[in-house]
Amino acid sequence: MPDYSLLIFDWDGTLVDSIGRIVESMRVAAGRSGLPWRSDEAIKGIIGLGLPEAIQTLYPEVDDAAALSVFRRDYGEHYLLLEAEPSPLFPGVMDALEHFRHCGFRLAVATGKSRRGLDRVLAGQGWQRFFDITRAADESASKPDPRMLHEILAHCRVDPRRALMVGDSPFDLEMARRAGMDSVAVAYGAQPLSVLREFGPSLEIEHFNELRAWLDGRVTSPQGEVSGYVG
Questions:
Q1: Are 225 and 105 in contact (CB under 8 A)?
Q2: CATH code of residue 57
Q3: Is residue 226 a part of any domain in this protein?
């Protein structure tokens, strides 16, 4: 089993408990545009994509630039209103990220959020310190295109076999597979494990601390020396 040196995380639904706000904001924006109601399951099914791709997957009838721009504006305005109090990290995430840094892991984010949205929350909460690099869909390519992962790997100078993608959507796991990376399926986010198992994750977790415990079986020092494997 591989010795990982780089951990790459999805944002919404993996590190941050924001799925409900995304669903609500998508519904509000659709309503303002006179578009039909979509179920929770349908909206959760596009979480992980870049916003333009998500909108056009849910509403293919939004097929011109002006209508797409209005939808994106309405979505963003409502999401920012909800984010007056920022979405919290999931339980265990803060301590685990601190622990991973202490153990010598490189950490990164690959998200469907916009660069502006990601920077806002990172700066507002002081979370930039955790990550060596972050990549957003609007500056790269939407998942499941592996371009974000290729860019992160190049920046960190890490072979894909030593990197691990952690995410809660099929787009995260398919992106990792296309990049030649192992993945971890998160069960508490947008999609159930029954959907994520199709993509062959190396680990399934119901709580973020399970990732920490799994990796602790591999690392014994801040230099990342390997002592053995679990799981």
A1: no
A2: 1.10.150.240
A3: no
pLDDT in tens, 149-208: 999 999 999 999 999 999 999 999 999 999 999 999 999 999 999 999 999 999 999 999
- Whether the model clears a pTM of 0.85, i.e. scores above it, the answer is yes
Distance separating alpha carbons of residues 161 and 3, to the nearest angstrom: 8
Beta strand residue intervals within the chain, DSSP E: 6-9, 106-111, 133-136, 163-167, 182-186, 203-205
Q: Which of 82, 103, 126 is the last residue of a domain?
A: 82
Let me know whether 104 and 63 are in one domain: no
Neighbours of 190 (CB within 10 A): 29
Same domain, 158 and 182: yes
Task: State whether 175 and 75 are in the same domain.
Answer: no
Domain membership of residue 68 as a residue range:
19-82
Strands (E), 72-128: 106-111
- Residues 54, 47: Cα–Cα separation, whole Å: 7
**Contacts of 15 by beta carbon, 8 Å cutoff, 6+ apart:** 9, 89, 90, 93, 109
Instruction: Let me know: does 221 contact 44? Beta carbons within 8 Å.
Output: no
The residue type of 134 is T
